[in-house]
Amino acid sequence: MAVMRRNILNDSAVRDAYIRGVKLLKQEFLTPNGLSTYDTFVAWHHRAMMRFTPPTQFRRNAAHVGPVFLPWHRHMLILFERQLQRVLGDSSFGLPYWDWGTDGELPTSQQRQSALWSPNCMGRDGTPVSSGPFAAAEWQVRVEATPSGSLRATQRGLRRRFDERVSLPTREQVRAVVAVVPYDGSPWDDSVQQSFRDLLEGWQPTPPSLHNLVHVWVGGDMGASTSPNDPVFFLNHANVDRIWAAWQNHNATSRYVPVQNEKNAPRGHRERDPVFSIVRPAPTPTDLLDVSAIYSYDSFEGIL
Amino acid sequence: MQEDKDIQYIRKAAQQAAHALRRSVRHNHMTHRSSVRKATHEGHRIEIRTMYEVRVDGRRVSLPLSVDSEGRVTCHALPNYSFQSAVDLVKQVIATYPDDFPKGRRKEVRGHGGHAS
User: Fold this and answer.
1) Mind telling me how many Å the CA of A257 is from chain B's nearest CA?
2) C-alpha span between B15 and A37 (Å, rounded)
3) Closest CA to B101 of B54, B64, B66
4) Which end of chain B offers a freer environment for a tag, N or C, measured as fewer CB atoms within 10 Å?
5) Which residues neighbour A74 within 8 Å (Cβ) at sequence distance 6 or greater?
6) Helix (H, G, I), strand (E, B), or coil: what is residue B4?
7) Min CA distance, B20 vs chain A (Å)?
8) pLDDT digits (tens, 9 = 90+) for B5-57
9) Of A292, A256, A278, whose CA–CA distance to A69 is shortest?
10) What are A160-190's pLDDT values in tens digits?
11) A87 to chain B: which residues are within 8 Å by CB?
């Protein structure tokens, strides 16, 4: 049965379950050197980012800067949601989302006062974070990227550095992006002229915007390839996925591209290419277009 | 149950990640790369190769920077950012990776007139 994904600020039971669930995944150790189920999702995201598609260039990768950005993260979220359901013992649990477009309506100086950053939700910023459920005493980062692109072990608190030089995306910006078709276009990267995916990922019109801007605004660990270290990562991407779902709903005649026989389309991004996954069989973008049997969103308010 | 199948694969992925962590101790430097920008103008083919060598406090830093045809500078150390200035990018790298640029380890560099601001 399909689960419902809800706004984390509108449902305290879902909020508390999410916090409890990610902590359980963080404490579920899978290797002798102390990597947990949660840490494995962090490492997977990093590996996807370092897998260039094709390997002759160093911009587009197996999960970003290309058409597969949205399906790849949808797959990651579905897998993560199932793990949360398992450790919570609740098959009806739906991953919550952070509707950052609503917080973006606040003046920049007030955005950090959103209820999302309260002590009973994500806690505040800090290096390390020192309040809320992900304060250093309760949440340790164990894998992190290096500036050169490697993955290394660490043991430290989570870092957030809210960047008040930028402002969160607004509802108006979200609505404008949802009106854009086609889904994507040649050259299938961040230089494409008219692309819903590229706009939502946040490379146009002035980067960073939308998804990228949220990473930049939160800052700290959210700014690296190991950004899932911050549980806010999944709330951001659930909202990105919600915007894609709204776009699919609004533009029913627009399809995922590139199609399989598209000339010069990058391998790993075409409609029937398996996505870079840690499970088998890996789904294709086509497999991930209709998720109505798995989950739905409670509302497209602020998007459509 | 699908969740139970998934966890078997996740366990394998965790072991691969653990292996990668052990390797990163030995191989923690990525090769420096050059960006190639190509264009045509009045029948001429333009090709510009750019390679960055970044030093912080006199120490060479392995940062694979790229520049695109619009002059935007990016680096996968900061996957959600792009900059008009490589200096601004390196400033953000220092902010995002404080353990790699610890305060108090600044090496004096003489005769180079200070650093960019």
Assistant:
1) 23
2) 11
3) B54
4) C
5) A241, A244, A288, A291
6) helix
7) 7
8) 899 999 999 999 998 888 765 444 455 578 999 999 999 999 999 999 999 99
9) A256
10) 999 989 999 999 999 999 999 999 999 999 9
11) none
Chain centre distance of CA A174: 16
Q: Which residues contact A180 (CB under 8 A, 6 or more apart)?
A: A194, A195, A196, A199
Q: What is the model's pTM?
A: 0.94
Q: B20 to chain A: which residues are within 8 Å by CB?
A: 43, 47, 151
A8, A96 contact by CB (below 8 A): yes
Distances (CA, A) of B61 to A49, A148, A155, B34, B101: 20, 8, 23, 15, 10
User: Are residues A36 and A155 in contact, defined by beta-carbon separation less than 8 angstroms?
Assistant: no
CA B12 to chain centre: 28
| C-alpha Rg value of chain A to the nearest Å | 18
User: DSSP secondary-structure letter at B5?
Assistant: H
Task: Describe chain B by its helix, strand, coil percentages, rounded to 5.
Answer: 35, 25, 40
Q: Are B27 and A111 in contact (CB under 8 A)?
A: no
